[in-house]
Amino acid sequence: PWRDRLQGEPHCMQVYFPHDGDLRLAWRIQLSLAAKLPVVSAGDRSADWEAIVDAQTGTVLELLDVSMYAASWGRVFYPNPVVTLQKEDLAWDAPIPASAYRKVRLGRLDGSGYLRGRYADTADTPNRVQQTDGQFLYERTQPQFLEVMAYHYVDQVLNWLRREGWPDLFTKPLRINARAVLGDNSKFLPKSWAVHFGEGNVMDAEDASIIIHELGHAIQEAQVQDWATARAHSPIRAMGEGFADWLATLFFAEPRRGFHSTYVGDWDARGYVPPQSYLRRVDNAKTMDNWQNEEHADGEIWSAALWDLYLGLGGDSADATKRRTARATAARLVLTSHLYLSDGRRDTLKYAHGLDALLTADRFTGPDPTRPGPHEQLIRDVFAKRHIRT
User: Fold this and answer.
1) Do 224 and 239 meet the contact criterion of CB atoms below 8 Å apart?
2) What confidence tens digit (pLDDT) does each residue in 245-258 have?
3) How far apart are CA 140 and CA 132, in angstroms?
4) Model pLDDT for residues 139-193, shown as the tens digit of each residue
5) Residue 348 DSSP label
6) Could you say which DSSP state residue 34 is in?
7) 3-class DSSP state for residue 120?
8) Model-level pTM greater than 0.90?
9) CA 89 – CA 112 distance, rounded (Å)
10) For residue 361, which of 49, 136, 148, 337 is within the disulfide window of CB 3.0 to 4.6 Å?
């Protein structure tokens, strides 16, 4: 339908696209279209578009306008001042220089002046900010900064996953309270479809890894209903904590490369009493022999196995292209594996079931689903290192 409107050559690549509960082999086509006159709808305007087309039937599964219109801008930590400044002894109450911030384009806002868009909405934040000029340029000393951080990173992670073939994770925006009265704790509320970020010497929403950790719980809940309400400290809950930590480190694998690459909460922890260097790490030496029946501690076993998987796929390569490919492959495998844990037996699932789901995901995203997946031996090896076997 766009042939007579094409401007330049389209860019095409094959992807696996989640649609109606299945993974469909599809073409992702990026193209620029001239206006269709008269312009009577959004689809008629001149714009850059991204189309997802079923590789077998030719059906258009999704069509997105990816053009940049009047921009909104925000100021954020990327991911936090400890990493940006590479200052190991940075205290929570130290002055933060301008060089620790990054000016970013705020994506997919609805034009209302609020931080409300396709994936996130800060509606639960008290006295939420509104900027009709789109300039959300705050600093840490201003409460609005927390809203900008939370909105931006929820939006960025979900948009990254959309580009990797996961466009339909959320059916509605995730509600955000960037300044919740929770003490020094944050939480995902599955029934309210919201995340609330707590207080502390370092506010939780100041630390991008804390934001992405809580988002990880929402992603799993979107994939597998009631994941978040499984029995406390059960293996499936520990897998959720491990996945959330791993997602936070995977997303920032490049900007953290060579400095705190495996740390979670390394800015938030500066505000603890006494101060700590990090909340958790994904490069720990834990195995199933260290099981404690506490979901955060036991989640470190799962996050470490997933981190080893990313490294084994090429995440430790000196070649940046190989690292990016490893990141995309790891995300595809792990998110696909969650779909094989949705049979209603969550409270009885063990880490071995999670490993089996990863092997199944590898097989069904490989070239021949009747044969072992291309990464089977690597997956088995990194999990065996943690004493997890099928």
Assistant:
1) no
2) 999 999 999 999 99
3) 21
4) 999 999 999 999 999 999 999 999 888 888 999 999 999 999 988 899 999 999 9
5) G
6) P
7) strand
8) no
9) 41
10) 337
